[in-house]
Amino acid sequence: MINFTSDQLAIWIASFIWPLTRILGLLSIAPPFGSASVPMLVKILLGVMISLVIAPDVPIPPALDPASITGLMILLQQLLIGLAMGFAVRLVFAAIEMAGELTSTTMGLGFAVFFDPQSQGRTSAISQLFSLLGTLVFLSINGHLVLVAVMADSFHTLPITTAPITAEGFHYLALSGARIFSMGLQLSLPMLVALLITNVALGILTRAAPQLNLFGIGFPITMVAGFVLIAVCLPYMLTPMQHFLNDAVETVRMLGGMATIPPMPKR
């Protein structure tokens, strides 16, 4: 007959619940797992399967009741860590979508909007195209597998303890959010410059020949030029997208070692 004490049962529950909370926090936000098109049951089952695999190797503080106040605080702490890691990956996809929004607005397709199930909002068609391209690039470099591996390693670099985590990791994540604009502008800058030159040329043409209807010929020309530029620039966007996604994974790895992140210098 197998006998076990209540302390052993509490340790078994804690060794499964706390890692599961961090993993579910990551899966709820990080693309492509965090998309609303992925059923919630699939996310939960995937999180449970990953937790069952890595739970025996996760260091757990002994003699700590998961139902106590301290245990609930650890549960909330693990949720915040998982959400921060998933948000780091989501930032890159937000930058890719921003590049699509800038391109779509410049070429005159700002009115062509659809419902995006991932962001639960309205987004342009070009932005959805770039987002799908970013997802395919992320899957092609096995980013989803690397993300799960980094999550598993984070339980050793940032173990589950009663000590509060430092704020340097979240500060670094907040500063990384500013890169959305720079990354989105870098991806869309060649198309924006070419479309700007096209609009300037149309303005000069209208000035030279006032009888031309700018609204009649300008919109078709800019739209066709935009599609041609997207077709030309898409192959060259794969390398920067891959670079940004690799940086996102490294950010997740750094957040997994938040206790070892050096404090940022004060300005």
Helix content: over 70%
Q: Biggest sheet, open or closed, and with what strands and sense?
A: 2 strands, antiparallel
What spatial form do the alpha-carbon principal axes imply?
Answer: elongated
Query: What string gives the helices and strands in order?
Result: HHHEEHHHHH
Mean pLDDT: 78
| Radius of gyration over all CA atoms, rounded | 24 Å
- The total of helices stands at 8
Poorly predicted residue ranges: 259-267
% residues in beta strands: under 5%
Tally of individual domains: 1
Which structural class do the helices and strands define?
mainly alpha
List how many beta strands DSSP finds: 2
Q: What oligomeric state do these chains adopt?
A: single chain
Distance between the termini: 65 Å
Which strand order does the major sheet show? Answer: 1-2
Keywords: Bacterial flagellum, Cell membrane, Cell projection, Cilium, Flagellum, Membrane, Transmembrane, Transmembrane helix
Transmembrane segments: 9-30, 36-55, 67-93, 129-152, 180-202, 214-238
Function: Role in flagellar biosynthesis.
InterPro entries: FliR, T3SS_IM_R
Describe this structure in words.
By secondary structure, the protein is mainly alpha-helical. The protein has one domain (6-260). The protein is built from 8 helices and 2 strands, in the order H-H-H-E-E-H-H-H-H-H. Strands 1-2 form a two-stranded antiparallel ribbon. Helix 3 (69-106) packs antiparallel against helix 8. The longest helix has 42 residues, at 214-255. The model is unreliable at 259-267 (pLDDT under 50). The chain crosses the membrane at residues 9-30, 36-55, 67-93, 129-152, 180-202, 214-238. It comes from Herbaspirillum rhizosphaerae. Keywords: Bacterial flagellum, Cell membrane, Cell projection, Cilium, Flagellum, Membrane, Transmembrane, Transmembrane helix. Its main location: membrane.
